[in-house]
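User: what does the whole thing look like in 3D?
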Amino acid sequence: MPAVLSASVPSQTFEIRRFDAPVGAEVIGLDISRPIGEADFARIHRAHLDHHVLVFRDQRVSPADHVAFSRRFGPLEIHVLHQFQLKGHPEILIVSNIRGEGGEPIGLGDAGVYWHSDISYKPEPSLGSLLHAQELPSEGGDTLFADQHLAWEALSPQMQARLLPLKAEHSYLAKYEELRAKNPWRPKLSPAQIDQVQPAVQPVVRTHPETGRKALFVSEHFTTRIVGLPPDESDALLAELFAHSVKPEFVYRHRWQPHDLVFWDNRSLMHLAAGTPDHLRRKLYRTTVKGDRPR
Ligand code: OGA
Ligand code: MN
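Assistant: Here's the predicted 3D structure for the full assembly of 295 residues, as structure tokens:
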């Protein structure tokens, strides 16, 4: 009997090319809106684990396609800022600096202005996020990704030993009011929203559940303190780790091309919005895949 593939989905022809950078690869020729069989999916999954951020080029796909592809990797998170959900698609968060006719924001305009890993402030943070370009500025608007496995591996054995037993608190509220003061359009959180984002305690060093590799897991955006350390010591250690974790040798800078869909691993990377000039429009759609409790 000839070998029979379980599903009759024909495979697609696509290439995976790693970037000339510490992390990242682009996927060329795959159409995420067409059926993806088990073998193709396994290739994508493997590449995601190997490169941590995949850039699927030229995805002229609908929000429903974006959501369906994202779901292949796990259940999706609904973001606490429900104000910025895409109509009809609560799984999509609009990331945009665009204002409507009345001056009201159409999306989260200052997403990712500090280094972070998405949803690290919940007990079960995100596995990965998928950001799809809708409208890009003619300059600026890049997204940076820093490899937290490389950051961990570059630490001295003494520092590694010191960090291994530590835990840190992460809070969505850590920078919320500061950002709201700068960007008054940021919605005031309701008591129900505040309830959803109570601080979570995470290991300072996590082990990737699929590859077994260790990664640093503290961020400027959400990590407030190291549990059990006096405030001065905690502040000093966090400042040192924040500076270390985003050194240029760990970073890939993504310059967006039209219709890029970028899928990164929040268990391996931190990311940062490098910034868009105020007068230029930028709009992307984000889905967020749920992940495991870090260990
Ligand atoms: C995000 C985010 C960065 C960017 O959507 O999670 O951090 O460059 N975005 O828009
Ligand atoms: Mn983010």
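In plain terms: The mean pLDDT is 96. The pocket of N-oxalylglycine (ligand 1) is lined by residues 95, 111-112, 118, 129, 131, 143, 271, 273, 284, 286 (CB under 6 Å).
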